[in-house]
Amino acid sequence: MKELSSGEIRQMFLDFFKEKGHTIVPSASLVPHDDPTLLWINSGVATMKKYFDGSVVPENPRMTSSQKSIRTNDIENVGRTARHQTLFEMLGNFSVGDYFKAEVIPWAFELLTSPEWFGWDKDRLYMTYYPEDTATKELWEKVGVAPDHLVPAEDNFWDIGQGPSGPDSEIFYDRGEKYDDLEPDDPENYPGGENERYLEVWNIVFSQFNHTAEGTYEPLPRKNIDTGMGLERVVSVFQDAPTNFETDLFMPIIKATEKLSEQKQYNANAKDDIAFKVVADHIRAITFAISDGALPSNEGRGYVIRRLLRRATINGHQLGIDGAFLYKLVPIVGEIMKSHYPKVLEQSAYIQKIVKSEEDRFNATLNDGITLLNDVIAETKAAGKTQISGKSAFKLYDTYGFPLELTEEYAGDRGLEVDQVEFDTEMEAQRNRARNARGSKGSMKVQRDLLIEIKTPSEYVGYDQLTVPAAKLEDIIVDEKLVDSTTQEAEIAELIFDKTPFYAEMGGQVADQGDIVAENGTVVAKVTDVQHAPNGQNLHTVTVLGELKKGAQYQLVVDRKFHAGVEKNHTATHLLDQSLRNILGGHTEQAGSLVKPDYLRFDFTHFGSVTNEDLAKVEKLVNDQIFAALPVETVVTDKESGKKMGAIALFDDKYGDQVRVVKAGDFSVEFCGGDHVKNTSQLGLFKIISESGVGAGIRRIEAVTSRPAFEYLTNEENLLNQVTKAVKAPNSNAAPEKVKEMQAQIKTLENKQAALEAKLANQAAGAIFDNPETINGYSVITGQLKNTNMNQLRELADTWRNKGYSNVLVLGTDLDGKANLLVAVDDETIKAGIKAGDLIKEISSNIQGGGGGRPNLAQAGGKNPAGIDAALNAAKQWLAEK
Fold first, then answer.
1. Residue 629 pLDDT > 60, yes or no?
2. Is the entire prediction scored with pTM above 0.85?
3. Using the 8-state DSSP alphabet, how is residue 169 labeled?
């Protein structure tokens, strides 16, 4: 076996397929763009869907990649099995309607067995195939695979529902007898069974059918190849590692964790092994996710990051590591992966800052989780039960990041078990919620064959002219059919011209609108949308108003006012993008945009909200560039030259051999195929109208330029004048100071009112404290107060506790048509089993509300003040029965 590093193996795979005519496609961001069906990029083919479903025709139908991916559906198994990872790399080669089985099978065998490449012993290779796919079996035999190394398997058919599908062939590597974990006659001891000896390393999917909505399988017009080879698994073969973790992808992280632990060593025992593996796996996923713009939060991708971080933190604690430590591992992840992912190491300081902040927050709440767990254990034992409810265990897992095994360990030390069936039910419900949140759109569209077949050349000329006097109508599509003409008014048609000034929607810039005019000057169609066809032509969606004939000449007229507004706002997004980087830091990246004629919307990655001070700096910096009257130039060059110019590439946009680089003076340089003004001064003015969060680590700025900016400021001025008049300030400059004076006066009056209310409440409470009752051996004070808020009730509870007036205090009050209850219990009574939280839950239904709290203090709110008396009586009854 060759001695190769993970980086060398990855590169060898890519180089092999490059020699076979494939284009090496860079790894896409883990955060999907324009795909609501995915939370994360979860496979190599996920980034190729636009090619396989026919919405885009690739420049080269042969592609290869090493795609970073995240899957968290089996997060509980990470560390417990040899192969489960949350972040992994999928090596793959893809053919879109080009080669098929006869080519890919010999290539796969060559890569795996040729001394020039992997050089594996062919006798250690086994292949499974779909039983009806005899062609695949024959091809494997033809390249030299022994018949007894070919295993038929009924489940070797790749099918995700409606869309492309087909048989597949899986390749297994026999790691030898030392990895036998089953008896020779065990039914799972074969390639494809559940065992450690035969390791699946590659899957080749022959995508040749279209699974229709009716449930039939129709041959695809273009057959495709999609393969997936897990890098971590292949590295474990080359490095003869028992699991994926004893490889150079993970061991540097594990060794660093050992040093941080100082108490535990990897391989000390199985329990510690799991903790080391969880830490190593999770910090890789966290680091890459943040590098690609996702940030911790309570929803979506952010929740996944937060959950991974909490699991890793708790497992670190099990290794004896106190305080924040994961952030120290981030640069190690960057060093391991720098050969293929240099961005991670470059961003390590930024990633560390986010991870440490999140660790500190979680460590501050971890004790709350332990307290809750102890309370659950105490309540379970007090009720005479031997099993903690699965709902309680899931709350610890979901809210505080406690793995089920940790709860089981804590409970086991106290002689309790956990209801795992109920826990699994709660977990499945959460998974269903996550799946539903991603929507019901299909994960891959059916190929739209008609558009793929249309290869008529079409030129976009809108960079230089907005009216084309004579454009030839090449194709007319109505109801998914090519027609020679159409005259039906109000009919929707799709048109392709040999040249067009109409911009096709791309990069956030909306499509142009306008008219199609016949030679006699009659408007025969209104352009309502323009999109790119799979082969790159501008496809015009129009409302038909007159006769359209294939081959005829038409004048194409773009709505100039609409287009001019779009141009200004598109240039503004470039200035805004660079200004955000300058003010907030280089970590800030565009996460989406919308450029319309009347406003712009710009989404960007950032940890936390943007302060008003920074927002003002960003706005000023953009306006400085406008007032500087910078020339806006477009340079057409090759991609590498564009990068040397410092051009920023957005998302994972695919750029051809020739690219457009848009420069605004020396301030902003970006790859961009959109339309722009000639000089920044044409924007006139830039004004931010809002800044908000729209997702995990994604902020959004909405802004206006030119006339809309002037109108916005004019409206703001009118509002200020109204405020000036209302506060009776002499002029608008004096209005802020006048408002401050009025606020101070209001605050003084509020304080006086609060003091008076407190005095009245204390006077009313005095009578309540004077009349304790004895119920079941406990001294109890109950009473109702009028027009008293909850803060005042808590102050009375403090007085009660300091003076020791009774064992139990139950107060009720009504204010503004709402009811509030408060229960307080002294320490001695708590030891006897009387808890404020239990009592408040018992009585709060009387006021049509609910509440809770600690054993010594609890409160509830409701909408039925008339039920306060009943609640106080219910409290007495509850105590009498104790």
1. yes
2. no
3. E
